[in-house]
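To fix ideas, we quote verbatim a fold written out as tokens:
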Amino acid sequence: MKRILIVLLFSFIGSFLLANGMLIMDAVAGSYMNLTKCKVDIQISNQAAVTTTTMNFYNQTNVSGAPKFAFPLTDNASATKLCWMINDSLYQAVIAPGQQGSIAPPGQTINAYIDQHLGKSPVVFSIPQTAQPAQTIMVQLTYVQLLPYSNGTVTYKYLTDYGFLNQAPLDSLSVNVQIYSPRIITGLQIPDFSSNPVLNGTSATCNFTVTNFIPNRNVLLNYTLAMENLGIGSISTLVNHTNVPDNLGDGFFLALVEPEPTGEVIQKYFTFIIDRSSIMMGTRLEQAKNAASYMINNLNPEDYFNIVDFSTIASAFAIQHMPYNITNRDLALNYISHLDPDGFSNFSGAFDTAIPQFASADSEAASIIVFLTGSQANTGITVTTQLVNHINGLIDATGRNISLFCFGVGSSINFQLLSLIASQNNGTATSVGINNLQDVLVDFFAKVRNPIVLSPTVSFNGVPSPVTEVYPNPLTNLYLGQQMLICGRYSVPQNILLNIDGTAYGNPVNYSFSDTLAESDIFVNVFLMKIWAKLKIEYLLRLYYQLNPESPEALALKTQIETLSIDYGVLCDLTNFSGPTETDDPISPLYEQTVKFIGNYPNPFNPQTSIQFDVKTDIPLSIEIRIYNLRGQLIRTLTRNVRGKGSYQLIWDGKDNKGNNVSSGIYFFSLIADNCKITSKMVLMK
């Protein structure tokens, strides 16, 4: 039995492009308020990012009206909170049942530049108050995002480039980044900005402000992690029951797997399905052909492969999978070079040709389909639910566990369909721009060509299982340089043994990990509530989209999804921001906080560290710092009374409340003052 150390990460292939929002006065005419100031606060914990962006908009138009706020989100990000301030009053939207409204009135076309900037899945909310000429409105949006990871590198993107829109320079762009990781952070870069990052072992910070910022470049962040001690690890938190909206357990658990590479190579059966319908004319098809040629050139000697191309009808390079050798490679490359665009898109015909061939594939090999399309199904089977069921039926008939990876090019795709067929068949769906398909596929193939664990299942010791409600369901196959996410719930803090079983290289494999579930609320891990809810919602949505929306089963699922979205504050396809509710919340980030946390230095530390903070009020305060270990146990409380504005510090000497020296490790602390609570993490390294 192997024992590996789990690393926390959310590995999703996709286009992680997020951009500044807009306050739109008239989406058809292309009238919008100018963004004058933007502050972006990014907290990344174990590759899960919580972003709070605060934007000031100025109405430079000569008209008054109720503007619409729109913010582009990618498919993997979920909005959790929306606030705005107008006429010195602060409001907060609530999440309610029903799909969100459109940016433009029904039947009217959105301005092309606005449409391009916002993408295909923006958050849309109608500000109910009237924006007068020369008035400023502040809007704040918070969202959670699962960041992409590959071979030790994590990437985050926030787009501040308005493209062809006529956006005036911003008075200022401020970006504040805090990163925590279970592995040593070896590098942090933000190209195109002078960011001066600070690395402190398992944490890193980066803060910068640009005045008179011309919004023609993006904030692109990437950081690298040490590649030692790969394997298995977990985090958890036991939330106060009053803050948990269901009875599934107050504990939230998350683990990810990234085993050490073995150097072995598993045999694979590949089929590359290429859309050559008329919509693929030009750059789309050329990039698809180049990407397919790259993959053909980089197969392993033990692999088998085939190529299926489709328009109105489907064709194939061979009637069955061919062994990879120089002769077959050159024939396949020649076949690809002669593909020309024409006709309609017959998805069902393509899968009718490709899938049955896997019935004769070696049962111990990995079976993989890479599906490239730039269109929607417009001949053959065209109804999404029918097409999903048809493809699943074809796969079931082969008796093989096929992994289906879909790549949709441009804005004319049916991403819902691609997501459904991929998620139900051990794969992922990726939406890519017309000009970067080749780069995305080259990166994807470098990972997927070397599977580590196929058909994985997870179990926990004990009856009943100490961890339940585990998502994603089913688990996805694990490939070299990637990680497997496991998220669940628990009621009783205890020692657990996690087992991951699957196959690799024709043999059964098992990875095991022992851990202790947290017995109290660890504040920096509270984001696990929303991650768990997001993953369960995605699972339920996949079930919902397979049903007739008017059936009793679909209606029951819809209610369950809406309730989960509202209760956990995670926006989804079936809910929207509504309201408003006026609030005078004193700890809202829209207000300057009474106490500003500066940092603790040194970090890592031995034997002591200085926890530093600024006080921004003349009112006397009592400052309390509570320090917790990884199990969520309170080990030390520090207090100090301050008499007004200024810089202060509290020293922790690495001892608990009984005066005993604590061991090396990660510790969390909460700084509490005047209804403000600031949390952070530090490392004692002896």
